[in-house]
Amino acid sequence: MAGSPDMAALEDSFRKFAVYGDTKATGQEMNGKNWAKLCKDCKVTDGKGVTSTDVDIVFSKVKGKTARVITYEEFKNALEDLAPKRFKDKSKEEAYECICQLVAGKEPANVGVTKAKAGGAVERLTDTSKYTGSHKERFDESGKGKGKGGREDIVDTSGYVSAYKHAGTYDAKVKK
């Protein structure tokens, strides 16, 4: 079984998944989390024949008693154990070949990785037309800042209360 032509690609996939998410990993050994990721990304787990529980059980079965990781040889044994479950209608050898083809040449998928999102809250918070109170006075109608005039309280010495609608009309009323 081990003389398959895609064994180099299979070993390459093993190494890529072994170092995934771990900066100290050498690629010689794979932990349980990366083994589960390999099975999920390469479609070894199908939810019917092979579940995530099966994947965990096989990992525990092939690793050493006190070990937390599996080597490449143990990895091949694990695939051999999962093959008949994944491909029930095929012989043991054919099933192993098929499962190796699923894994060979694949690398970890980065699906679900958080990306920076533009817009939304930032645009809402920087929209000067929605500002109220003293902040509103810092910008003109176009949304451009007024500079120092928008930040400082410029004293109005006209004698009227600020925002009084009829400012400057007193003299006109007295003369009537």
TrEMBL record:
GO molecular function, one term: tubulin binding
GO BP terms: microtubule bundle formation; microtubule polymerization; positive regulation of protein polymerization
UniProt feature, compositional bias: Basic and acidic residues: 134-154
One GO location term (cellular component): microtubule
Region (Disordered): 129-154
Location of this chain's protein in the cell: Cytoplasm, Cytoskeleton
Keywords: Cytoplasm, Cytoskeleton, Microtubule
Annotated family: Belongs to the TPPP family.
Name of the protein described by the UniProt record: Tubulin polymerization-promoting protein family member 3
